Amino acid sequence: MTTTSNPAMGRSAGPKPSLRRKASRGSILADRAATVALWGTGILVILILGAIILHFALAAWGVVSPSFILSDPSRATLGGVMPILWNSIYILVLTMLIAVPVGILAGIYMAEYAGDNGITGAIRFAEESISSVPSIVVGLFGLILFVDDFHWGFSALGGSLALTFFNLPLMTRLSEQALRAVPQEERNASLALGATKWQTIQHVVLPLAIPGLITGIILTAGRVFGEAAVLLFTSGVGTPPHYNFLNFDLTNPASPWSPFRPATTLSVYIWNLNSEGLGAFKNQIVDGSAAILISMVLIFNLGARLIGRLLTRRLTAA
Amino acid sequence: MNTGDEMPATAIYQAPVLRRVEVATPRAADEATARTEEVKISTDHVSIKYGEKVAVRDVSLTVQDRSILALIGPSGSGKSTFLRCLNRMNDLIPGASVQGRVCLDGENVMDPDVSVVELRRRVGMVFQRPNPFPMSIFENVAYGPRRRGLNDRRKLDELVETSLKRAALWDEVKDDLRRKSGLALSGGQQQRLCIARVLATDPEVILMDEPASALDPVSTLRIEELMRELREAYTIVIVTHNMQQAARVSDVTAFFTMAEDRAGYLVEVGPTGRIFTRPNERLTEDYISGRFG
Fold this sequence. Notes:
The structure holds two protein chains of two kinds. By secondary structure, chain A is an all-alpha fold. Chain A has helices spanning 2-5, 25-59, 66-70, 82-113, 118-132, 135-149, 156-180, 184-192, 197-226, 229-232, 266-276, 282-316.
């Protein structure tokens, strides 16, 4: 049909190659192997998460109950983890209150204002270096600075600030990447309409960067939940006293709202109990705490994604 | 049905689109100049460099108020670069530098104390690829005015409506202004939305960088029709690869080409009718008759 209509463009005569002709055996095998390997690794990641969740769900079965979540620790009975859970949330919120705004602002500076020069090179180098300093060393630094030099003793604020040191580079880098991923055309469109640079960042770049920023927040929060080494030396180890939540005196170390009180978090508590704890219910408490910690991480991650999605929808109507 | 770019059944767009464009053959030079003597834009020995590389060399031309100037020429001849210096969008390109004077109403926009924000409000720009923000149609049009502090709901409603009407998009989008994303429109509609977005900032000059090159022929004719209408109130500078388009819509045509060192320069500028029938330069004639390169 085609050859007769335009002989000049016809292909050389001869048998047409069959569509069914087999590719070489090797390439088929390689293709199959790649498919299997890629699927396999993907499934492996899900299996690992599933196994961890399943293990602690089973181990904590019968341990975690409303009373376990809501009561104080006890030596003689199973007791609960309420003050420790409170500390985890408290330190998380305090750390994120500092790290997220500073990290996003630094990310904006790096992505939108700082060109490629010696200073940004130095900042990137510092980001990478701080990120790879072992957390126990960051904890030691916090001990020297906040606990000793500032005479704060073990405090939630000291722990949060040490965690901020540790997390700020990650938050900054991820924010920068999220902002850089916004196409330049979006900025040009806004600037060409007579918007200022900051208006462009506020109204076009940041809304479009929200999914990436949320990823940064989730990864940072995950490290706050999970971090024990930094907090050992800064916010302290031990069994918290009974908290009276009606005590709003922020200067009183007995108030659960005070940033200047020692605050053992779940991760630190688990480490402490598991390595040197005593008591008949030690293992159950560890398993129960671990299950609560995992649930908190999952709830936070899902919540952050959901809020991010709502924010994006609100800001962009897309 | 109404989301496509097909001709809607409204009276505004039935035959006039095609007819008007047919009529819009190159007009005589004196007609264009007779409209107004006022010079809106003038450039004086403008050269633009990217780092060491000269992209545009020594361009001097003037654009009359309420006229359409078309910049034509082969790829790489510096048309778009030149266009971008008129609202200083080249400022955004690292390493780009502009020499010479670019005047808007006699004021040199290259002066260090000129506010680029104010300049870009007066000299709007439509890009090659339609680039609505990922916001509702309403918010796209309201974007510029809002950034200048207009928040009065009634005024915004009014402004959005008049801008969309001027951009000949109102009838197609009026029912879901706030619900529909600008990105959900067809390519031609998106480009008219981008024009409406510029009109809402009340500019005096509109720069268009190949505004129809990503559009189908029907949408292209619509944009051209729109340009003819906008010419009544605005000064337009358009970069186009499409010579028929330049011939159809513009009053004045400037032909750019590349020198030996690949720097773009202005070969000649003149009334569109003359450029397309009796160009002064051999290079222009070769290009418009398709003998170029």
